[in-house]
């Protein structure tokens, strides 16, 4: 069983934040797959099952995402973990795939790494660095601007497709199919 986790923060307040792009991808998958909802308080998240896939939105807030991931992966004895998250060091419109490595300061990844290790695949979605003079926390917790939404929708659609393919393939194959240099909003 493969566990696909989208990182974000719960409540409507954060719904359109840059930091919630992982949740946005899971929402796209939910729309496309119509999976079964699984309710269990100990999971600390919104969990859905579709065939051999589990889709998870941790509801612990970003800094404690690992608690939800650990609870679900232990209960289902998952064989594979894919985490979808925002990435400051990648421009909006780009997606990079990576296996393992450091959290790069991302608190959701730090939490997962501390509780389950870092041996998992990542779908890193660019949200760009903040403009000069704006701090990082304010930037990641800000909503995407109106003019960015067409790009956000395109990227979440591509990332959802990648997540489904990655669940059945290896990361090296998909890194070739979805090159990190491609900007899905400007490269056609």
Write a structural description.
The structure is a single chain. This protein is α/β, with parallel strands linked by helices. It has a single domain, classed as Peptidyl-tRNA hydrolase (Rossmann fold), CATH 3.40.50.1470. The chain is built from 6 helices and 7 strands; from the N terminus they run βαβββαββαβααα. α1 crosses α5 and α2 (65-76) packs parallel to α3 (107-116). The radius of gyration is 15 Å and the shape is globular. The chain starts with a strand and ends in an 11-residue tail after the last helix.
Q: How would you describe this structure in keywords?
A:
7-stranded mixed sheet, 188 residues, alpha/beta, Rossmann fold
Number-wise, the strands total: 7
Beta strand %: 15-25%
CATH superfamily: Peptidyl-tRNA hydrolase
Question: Could you give the order of the helices and strands?
Answer: EHEEEHEEHEHHH
Average of the residue pLDDT scores:
95
User: Main β-sheet: number of strands, strand sense, barrel status?
Assistant: 7 strands, mixed
Give the overall form: globular
Q: Which regions contain 5 or more consecutive residues with pLDDT less than 50?
A: none
Helix percent band: 25-40%
Q: Give the terminus-to-terminus CA distance.
A: 34 Å
CATH class: Alpha Beta
CATH topology: Rossmann fold
Number of discrete helical segments:
6
Radius of gyration: 15 Å
Count of domains: 1
